[in-house]
Structure formats: C-alpha cells, structure tokens
Amino acid sequence: MTDAAELRSRTQELLAAHPPATVDRADFLGARFDAGLAWVHYPEGLGGLGAPRSLQAVVDAELEAAGAPDNDPRRIGIGLGMAAPTVLGFGTDEQKGRFLRPLWTGEEVWCQLFSEPGAGSDLAALGTRAVRDEATGDWVVNGQKVWTSSAHSARWAILIARTDPDLPKHRGITYFVCDMTDPGVEVRPLRQITGEAEFNEVFLTDVRIPDAHRLGAVGDGWKVAQTTLMNERVSIGGMRIPREGGMIGTVTKTWRDRPDLRTHDLHQRLLKLWVEAEVARLAGERLRQQLVAGQPGPEGSGMKLGFARLNQEISGLEVELLGADGLLYDDWTMRRPELVDFTGREAGYRYLRSKGNSIEGGTSEVLLNIVAERVLGLPAEPRTDKDVAWKDLAR
User: Fold this and answer.
1) Which of 76, 250, 299, 372 is the most buried if burial means most Cβ atoms within 10 Å?
2) pLDDT (0 to 100) of residue 1
3) pLDDT of 255-293, one tens digit each?
4) Dihedral of CA 50/51/53/58: which sign?
5) In the chain, what percentage of residues exceed pLDDT 70?
6) What are phi and psi of 120, to 5 degrees?
7) What's the pLDDT score for residue 381?
8) Which of 219, 216, 237 has its CA nearest to residue 227?
9) Which residues, in sequence order, are bridge partners of residue 44?
10) What is the pairing mode between strands 199-209 and 139-146?
C-alpha cells in the first residue's frame, strides 16, 4: 500500500530529476504523469499508483511548495472532471493509453457534446443519430449539439447519440469519443449576456467515428453518461476552495475595504450568505472524502444546486453593495475565452455569468428531482414516455 511518506519520497525524486525552474513545463507535466503522481488513485501506467484518493493532497502540497507548474485545471476542466473518469470506467486499455496522458497534461482539450436544442433538461430525448456503416464498421453521425463549452478549442469530445430509435429513449443511446478536427464538425459561437462566446453550438454532418472510439457497449450510452454527469456535478459544485474563497471572498473584501457602502440590511444578508458558503465548502470536503470509496453518487447534484443558488445570491448582493459602480461593465467585446473567470473581472460580469449556473451541468429543476427521488427517496414523478419507443414520442 502506498502511504504518505512514500508519496513524498516519489515527489521529491520527480523534482530532483526534473527541476521545475529549468525543465520545460510540458516535459515536467509528462514526467509527473509517468511517475504516477498526476492522480494517484488511478492505476499504475495511467498517471496513478493505485493509492487512496485522499493522498493526492500530499503530492499537490509538495509540488506547490517547490513551485512546480500545474496543468491549468480550469482550462481543461471538462477533460479532467468528466471525460477522464468516463474513459477510465468504460474505456478499453487502448483508449485509456491513448487519451488519458495528453488529457491530463493539457496537450488535448476536451468538450462535451450532450445537450441539443430539443434535448436539454430531458437529455435522454436527444435526436443526434449514429448509424453503423456495415462495410467499414464506422459510425456515421448527424445532428446538432448546443451549449458546448470549449468546443472552439477542443481536440476531442465525449458524445452521446441515438443508435436505435425503436427502443425507449434511455435505451437506444451509445457513447462515443468524437474527433473535433473532423471536416464534418462545424463549431459556431453562441454569444452570451456577458458579451463573450464561451459556449458554442456544434453541427455534425456525416461525421465518421471508428467503432474503436465507442465507450461501452452499443445501447449502453445512458449508463455510461451517468458516470459523466455525476462527475460533472461534483466538479462544478464541489470544487476545493479555502475559507472565504470564490465569490464570497470577493464580496467580503469589498465590505472590509469600503465601509462607506455598508448598511444594516446588507450586513445581515452578507452574514447569512457567508455562513451558507462555509456550510457548502465543508459539505464539499465531506463529499470529496466519500469519493475515496468510489464514484460520485446523486449527492453531487445537491452540491451543484447549492453552488448555483449561492453564486447568484452573492453576486446580486455584490452589485447592490457597490451601488452605481455595480452597474459598470468593462468590456462587451465578443471574445471566445478558454475558461470562466468568476473572480478575475468586475461585479457586473459575475452577476450576469452566474445566471448560467442554474442551467449548465444540469438545470436546477432537474437536479431538484434527482435529489428528491435518489437522495431523499421521495416518490418519483409519473413518466408516461418511459416504455415508448423514441421514434413514437411526440416532438
């Protein structure tokens, strides 16, 4: 069993052989992966050592103290938080060996082709089709996806498509890895209320995906997608932050720096949100400890719910606290950013961008149902389309 002392020793060996001050960043990250110190709970040869997940903090602390570069996790969050655990759970040995290393080092960015114009909250109703070419064994995909973060910079995408319209909607879906450089893939920007085009819509026209890029069995796409979705909600709502980190830290700093803005009412609201943010942070720590025992469950949906509500309430309070200054906005230029920076811009941006938190990664309405049914055990809502073939559903 790998313990903390052995991990410290391995980390120091990595630093001695690849000094961060003199070694190229990409070379250092590759060496870290090869040493099993990327994500220590992954298997040996795939960036890990089969160690307990909780020991990752030991490695991270040693590397941070040495000034070692990280892999820019915010930029590659979809790959790290969603694609990697899905590939690990359902990929073949060849797929794991091909995709995980450049995913972790950031050499290859990933995006998620799930939502569609007619299948957002009801994701299982998706209509993008994948038809098997019996002559070559490839899958030919046609359809449209929407709200795709990072599609404009992604090399690969995790994709779910309908392979059997004669089955009920949850059962006729298959999961693929899609090459975003394929000539049949067209990415168009979606400009948001913030002025940026962080999201995209993606059109797939006769995109050929080799069967070797299928994850899981044909028709098991919904099962595979659950791993992605559960990890997605944990990665969005359960990020590790220090006390007074994130958006609550920004507004409390303004409160301390600008006593002229304070009122009794705003003080009471800030105290309430500070406590709720701290409760959410501690709940996230507990959730991460539970993950040591296995894959995330539906509890991550509760974390993501709280994240969305808190971000929206905190950013609203910040705009009110700043008064007229809270209405200022620095730049409406159309940009296509590679990451979301909630704390690096002004209050107006945070207020507008947080509106998307209750939509992305599962709408709050859908997550409330998941928490009610799968966490609290309340009766499920009646679903009349459960046993109806997808092709016969009203659209």
Assistant:
1) 76
2) 54
3) 999 999 999 999 999 999 999 999 988 888 777 766 665
4) negative
5) 95
6) -105, -80
7) 82
8) 216
9) 48
10) antiparallel
Tokens standing for residue 208: 């050929």
Amino acid symbol at 29: L
Residue holding tokens 């709200």? Answer: 147
What is the number of H-type helices and E-type strands within the chain? Answer: 12, 8
Catalytic residue set:
232
Residue-by-residue DSSP string for 186-234 = EEEEE--TTS---EEEEEEEEEEE-GGGEESSTTBHHHHHHHHHHHHHH
Length of the chain: 395
Of 45, 41, 61, the closest CA to residue 1 belongs to 41
Distance separating alpha carbons of residues 270 and 257, to the nearest angstrom: 14
> DSSP string covering 13-73, please?
HHHHHS-TTTS-HHHHHHHHHHTT-SSTTSPBTTTB-S--GGGHHHHHHHHHHTT-----T
| pLDDT, tens digit, 9 for 90 and up, residues 15-74 | 999 999 999 999 999 999 999 999 999 999 999 999 988 899 999 999 999 999 999 998
Instruction: Report which of 99, 105, 106 is spatially closest to residue 84, judged by C-alpha positions.
Output: 99
Mean pLDDT, residues 206-228: 96
Beta strands in the chain (DSSP E): 110-113, 129-132, 139-146, 156-162, 173-179, 185-190, 199-209, 214-215
Q: Taken in order 151, 154, 155, 159, is the CA torsion positive or negative?
A: negative
What is the number of other CB atoms lying within 10 angstroms of the CB of residue 64?
10
